[in-house]
Specification:
Blueprint (H helix, E strand, L loop, with lengths): L17 H5 L8 E2 L2 E2 L1 E2 L10 H14 L9 H21 L7 E4 L2 H16 L5 E5 L8 H10 L2 E5 L9 H7 L4 E7 L11 H9 L5 E4 L11 H4 L3 E5 L10 E5 L1 H6 L10 E4 L4 E3 L13 H17 L1 H20 L4 E4 L8 E6 L4 H10 L2 E2 L1 E3 L4 H7 L4 E5 L6 H18 L1
Parallel strand pairs: 3-15, 5-6, 5-7, 7-8, 8-9
Antiparallel strand pairs: 1-2, 4-10, 9-10, 11-12, 13-14, 14-17, 16-17
Helix pairs in contact: 2-10, 3-10, 4-5, 11-14, 12-14
Length: 419
């Protein structure tokens, strides 16, 4: 057993035992305002199993050292654990090689890295970048900034009233002017699972690379970047039971090799003189400075934990929760569901007639129920549906149908308070 992993997660039996799983998450025993915590804000961040918490503590208590540069025992131990985590991530998303895994601080940093590096080299005046209406601000603003700097144009894939991309209109937008397509795998505001494999096929038919924002998909679906054939895939550790401040940008080797470094300093160099710097090989060329070592190790342990359960089992169970929540919450008079795509995952956004989502969130909090209320860093989506904000319940594999019942009761109470 690796020193950083700690106790191993026992495999889940064929029947999904959510009560056993819940015991792995100490925060689920908390009480909020005297009531048991019902945590339904997983699209913002997931909770952490004890083995991840233990790994972070163990790193600082027993392994703390900088990596890659030391010949002493602690440095070599920390380096091995950190690089082992990179290999775990490689296998988790089925990348071809571990050097295609770039550690970042999260999805936002991964997308910005592509915008700053790929964009600096390959995007020029008159070029186009395509994103969609349902993107998180992290997959809008970096491309707006790039377009402002280069004179390129940002084009937007529209969506229908269910929150589904209009693929025929996307196909009509493709041309030699387009230098990149960047779309979410799953919408954080609507829960829509986009047909990213089809999007990639269409883009590649015009030799256009595709970046997928996988922040919401990596925790809920089995991701296979080689099957998708995407050129870039970004996700965050904190949404899949790992620590905050760590994430991954996957890139096909030939793109990463062609991309210039964005940050200069330690670890990204092979040699430095005042006349010339020679850059390091992948992945280090794009990883300057001391990284989030404990975060990388913790993310590796989180992947161990998820693998012990199985992403297929997680996806199936969470689909049951979503179906139950859609039926239960959607049946409450005055509630409108925002985002009713045929293919959805783990997100239920809703409004209540005459009640602001912030008030919904406040009343639910008094019942111990944590949901997100606001525009969810997706203001163009809110504008598309004609609402200033929504309340959003988002589910993870440690949630239960009883918690959804508690949410329904909390919504009924909210309606009574404001009626």
């Amino acid at each position: 057993m690796s020193a950083a992993v700690g106790r191993e997660a026992a495999p889940i039996e064929n029947n999904f035992d959510v009560e056993r799983i819940r015991k792995d998450f100490p925060i689920l025993n908390e009480k909020i305002h005297g009531r048991p915590l019902v945590y339904l804000d997983n699209a913002a961040t997931s909770q952490k199993p004890q083995m991840v918490i233990d790994a972070l503590t163990r790193y600082y208590a027993e392994q703390n050292s900088n990596i890659h540069r030391g010949v002493h025992y602690l440095s070599q131990l920390a380096t091995r654990e950190y690089e082992d985590a990179r290999v775990k991530i490689q296998h988790f998303i089925n990348a071809a090689d571990s050097h295609e895994i770039i550690f970042t601080s999260g999805t936002t940093a991964g997308i910005n890295l592509v915008a700053l590096s790929y964009g600096r080299k390959f995007v020029h005046a008159g070029d186009e970048i395509i994103i969609s209406t349902m993107e998180h601000h992290s997959n809008i603003v970096p491309w707006q900034m790039l377009c402002e700097q280069t004179g390129a144009t940002l084009r937007i894939i529209p969506i229908n009233d269910a929150g589904e991309l209009l693929i025929d209109e996307f196909a009509a937008m493709l041309s030699s002017k387009v230098k990149l397509v960047a779309v979410a795998h799953i919408s954080n505001a609507l829960g829509t699972i986009n047909p990213v494999k089809r999007i990639i096929e269409l883009a590649h038919s015009h030799d256009i690379p595709v970046l997928i924002d996988g922040a919401q998909a990596a925790p809920h679906l089995k991701v296979d970047v080689r099957d998708l054939d995407c050129d870039f895939y970004a996700f965050s550790g904190h949404k899949l039971c790992g620590p905050t401040g760590i994430g991954t940008l996957y890139g096909k080797s030939h793109w990463l090799e062609a991309m210039p470094p964005v940050f200069g300093g330690g670890d990204m160099i092979a040699s430095v003189s005042f006349e010339k710097t020679t850059y390091n090989s992948l992945p280090y060329k794009l990883e300057a400075g001391t990284p989030n070592i404990e975060g990388g190790i913790g993310l590796g342990v989180a992947i161990d934990y998820l693998n012990s359960i199985g992403l297929d089992k997680i996806a199936a169970y969470e689909q049951e929760l979503l179906d139950y929540a859609t039926e239960t919450i959607g049946a409450i008079p005055g509630v409108t569901l925002i985002g009713t795509a045929r293919e959805k995952a783990s997100v239920l956004s809703f409004t209540i007639d005459g009640i602001h989502p912030h008030d919904i969130g406040t009343i639910l909090d008094q019942e111990g129920i944590a949901v997100r209320a606001g525009h969810h860093c997706a203001q163009p989506v809110m504008k598309r549906f004609g609402v200033p904000a929504t309340a959003r319940a988002s589910f993870a594999f440690y949630n239960t149908k009883e918690e959804i019942d508690a949410l329904a009761e909390g919504i009924q109470k909210t309606i009574e308070v404001f009626s």
